[in-house]
Amino acid sequence: MLVPAAPSGDGGVETFGVARVRNIGVDVAVGDWVVPSADGERIEHILTRRSGFVRRASFEGARAMSHTIAANIDVAFLCHSFGVPPNQRRLERELILAFDSGADPVVLLTKADLVDDPEPARRELEEVALGVPVLVTSGRSADGLAELEGYVRPGGTVAFLGSSGVGKSTIVNELLGSQLQATTEVRGDQRGRHTTVAVQLLAVPGGGWLVDTPGVRALSLWHSGQGIERAFADVFELTDDCRFRDCKHDQEPGCAVRQAIEDGTLDPD
């Protein structure tokens, strides 16, 4: 059985589709495959996840707590809007989380109808994404929708992640071919309100699954594995040429990273 939805606790602002299953003492998230009891009243077992989008949720005393936003995602759409300047630092964190999750990230620039020329913003995020696809879409005009649909495959699961007001629900409705997800107008400063208040798993016509998530204002990293190396591949490739294996890239002689910054071939930011 596939877990389709989980309550968001306090309205979806800080809690994302994770519930503790008391009889087995573990957390189950939207997208998990589970084995129910014979009477359908309990979850007996959670099958091994092939991916899990995990962020740092909160602190309990001195102990940091992790939070699985969704499980078994094949493609994670990292949504940013033309309504606000590109947030490169947020995208870096999203890429790290996506790579660590095991999903394939795709950057999605929404609301292209708000600008005359989408190319400057797209190129700016491409420089951060380092080979990750950057798609330009508009929920109102359906521009870019066909390219987006190419990532939704029968048997696969895609997820939309981003802050409030970036247009996730509008794009989701276009993919579903219905107004299933509520949408609202954003404020003049392009800050949105939470129209999606719980993580939901939705069936896409023609096959495949779609995970819609509430907007996440603050995106904190959990324990990073290989994600940080993949998100900053240009920096990590240079470290192999540093004179010292334990180079801190500060004032050490023979630092290839510092040299690349001085040569202008690596952005210091």
Describe this structure in words.
This protein has 269 residues and is an alpha/beta fold. The chain folds into 2 domains: 1-222, Rossmann fold, CATH 3.40.50; 232-263, no CATH class. The protein is 22% helix and 23% strand. A 6-stranded mixed beta sheet has the order 9-8-7-10-12-11, sandwiched between helices. A two-stranded antiparallel sheet has the order 1-2. Strands 3-4 form a two-stranded antiparallel sheet. It is flat. It starts with 17 loop residues before the first strand and ends in a 6-residue tail after the last helix. The relative contact order is 0.15. Residues 7-17 and 186-194 have low confidence and may be disordered.
- So, CATH architecture of the largest domain? 3-Layer(aba) Sandwich
- Major pleated sheet: 6 strands, mixed
Kindly name the structural category. alpha/beta
Reading the helices and strands in chain order gives: EEEEEEEHEHEHEHEEHHH
Could you give the distance between the termini?
45 Å
Give the tally of β-strands. Answer: 12
* Radius of gyration, whole Å: 20 Å
What general form does the structure show? flat
Q: How much strand?
A: 15-25%
CATH class descriptor of the largest domain: Alpha Beta
User: How many domains is the backbone divided into?
Assistant: 2
Helix fraction bin: 10-25%
Arithmetic mean pLDDT: 76
Layout of helices and strands, plus pairs?
Blueprint: E1 18-21, E2 26-29, E3 34-36, E4 43-46, E5 52-60, E6 63-71, E7 75-81, H1 88-101, E8 104-110, H2 119-129, E9 134-136, H3 145-149, E10 157-161, H4 168-176, E11 200-203, E12 209-212, H5 227-231, H6 233-239, H7 256-263
